[in-house]
Every structure is written in structure tokens, then in C-alpha cells.
Amino acid sequence: MLASRASTAFMLRHPAHCIAFGFGSGLAPKAPGTFGTLWAWGAFWLLDHWLGTAGWALLIGAGLLIAPWVCAITARHMGVGDPSAVVWDEVVAFWIVLWLVTPAGFLMQALAFALFRFFDAAKPGPVGWADRRFKPRPDGTIGWREGFGIVFDDLVAAGCTLLVIAIGVALWR
């Protein structure tokens, strides 16, 4: 099943691929992480009408539980340690950010989006450390450890985003 590039056909071959590719948002030819994060934002707006705090907790918890598996399976089938088309890590991490800043208006959510994308793309400080921590081993094996690593740096980016927002809110008051 090894595929060298992401495609719709590859995504539809396995349910893990579909989830890992953010239901197609990771197939964007440029900046798939940004498109995955935008997909997460749109899904949040849609689902927030039906999900309360407990519903979001369950959805995010389930998303985090399956994240290492879907990311590892897809990376293994592509033969790449951290394929750019895999965006489930961005989706779940940004849902956490939006869930924790809610209630927040559009401007606060847009600020959260910009901060999260900065931390995820630039990988400053702790985000860069988290990104390097779980790279594939020299033997090229891609397993649960590497799947967790794909998710880990995005969770750290979410934490940095929330910290900057909390500091900004504290200074604003």
C-alpha cells in the first residue's frame, strides 16, 4: 500500500487515511497544515451548535485517542515520517484551543488561529523541541511512537497559543 504522494484515491483506501488527511483538507497543494486548521475552525463553528462542554470533551478525547494510530498508519503507508498531508494533529490541537477560549468572538478565534499557525509553522522553542523529540528512528520504523510525535508538537503549539492568549487577556484587564 506504500504511496509516495497523498491523493484522493490513497485517502479513500483506509479510514485512517481519511481521518489523518482531515477528510480531504490535507490534500491542499500548498500549506496543508493551514487548510487543516481552517477545516478544524469550520467544523468547530458547525459542531458547536450541537455540542456542549461535555460533547466537546468527548470528541476531543476521542480525537486524541485515535490521533497516534491514524497518523502512524498513514505515515507508514506513505513511507514518510511526518507527511505534510496528515493534518489530524492540527485539527485536534486547534479544537482544544477553540474549546478553551470559548466563549470567544470571531476576532479572538482569528487571533487564536494566527497564533496557532505561527507556533505550528515556525516551531519556536518548545514546539521545535517537541517536533524533534519523536522523529523516526534510523531504521525507518514508523509506529505508535512516531504517530504520537506527529501529534505532540501540535499539542505544544496549542499550549503556547493558549499561554500567549492568557497573558494577553491578563494584561488587557
TrEMBL record:
Predominant subcellular localization, coarse grouping: membrane
GO MF annotation list: metal ion binding; phosphatidylglycerophosphatase activity
UniProt keyword annotations, A-Z: Cell inner membrane, Cell membrane, Hydrolase, Lipid degradation, Lipid metabolism, Magnesium, Membrane, Metal-binding, Phospholipid degradation, Phospholipid metabolism, Transmembrane, Transmembrane helix
Membrane-spanning intervals of the chain: 49-71, 92-116, 155-172
Reaction(s) catalysed by this chain's protein: a 1,2-diacyl-sn-glycero-3-phospho-(1'-sn-glycero-3'-phosphate) + H2O = a 1,2-diacyl-sn-glycero-3-phospho-(1'-sn-glycerol) + phosphate
Metabolic or biological pathway: Phospholipid metabolism; phosphatidylglycerol biosynthesis; phosphatidylglycerol from CDP-diacylglycerol: step 2/2
Enzyme class: hydrolase
Cofactor needs: Mg(2+)
Gene Ontology process terms (BP): phosphatidylglycerol biosynthetic process; phospholipid catabolic process
One GO term describing the cellular component: plasma membrane
Protein name from the UniProt record: Phosphatidylglycerophosphatase A
Organism: Rubrivivax gelatinosus (strain NBRC 100245 / IL144)
GN (gene name): pgpA
